[in-house]
Amino acid sequence: TNCIEDWEAKVDAVVEETCMEDLRLVSGIPSWVQMYFERLLAHTGKATVKEVFPNLSLFVHGGVAFGPYAE
């Protein structure tokens, strides 16, 4: 996915590559991770990220204030 220049195609490729993995940690800028999670849920048909990644327990973020994304 590093070679994919188109951002939309890159996010879709990351979703495809990770949707069946046992993710336990996600790191990134909240707005980008939110986009990834929204695409992930659309791709899998699941209602929550917890349904896709039941062992996800840590979100490391940076770049912006986390408060607006707390919902």
Keywords for this structure?
71 residues, 3 helices
What does this structure look like?
With 71 residues, the chain is α+β, with helices and mostly antiparallel strands. The protein has one domain. 44% of the residues lie in helices and 11% in strands. It contains 3 helices and 2 strands; from the N terminus they run αβααβ. The protein has a two-stranded parallel ribbon with strand order 1-2. The radius of gyration is 12 Å and the shape is globular.
Brief rundown of the structure:
With 71 residues, the chain is α+β, with helices and mostly antiparallel strands. It has helices spanning 7-18, 30-44, 49-52, and strands at 25-28, 58-61. The radius of gyration is 12 Å and the shape is globular.
**Which stretches are poorly predicted, pLDDT < 50 over at least 5 residues?**
none
Tally of domains: 1
The CA-CA distance between the termini, in Å, is: 29 Å
Q: Strand percentage, roughly?
A: 5-15%
What order do the helices and strands follow? HEHHE
Roughly how many Å is the radius of gyration? 12 Å
Secondary-structure-based class equals: alpha+beta
Round the mean pLDDT to the nearest integer and report it.
91
Numbering strands along the chain, what is their spatial order in the largest sheet?
1-2
Number of helices: 3
- Record field, number of beta strands: 2
Outline the biggest β-sheet.
2 strands, parallel
**Shape call:** globular
Helix content: 40-55%
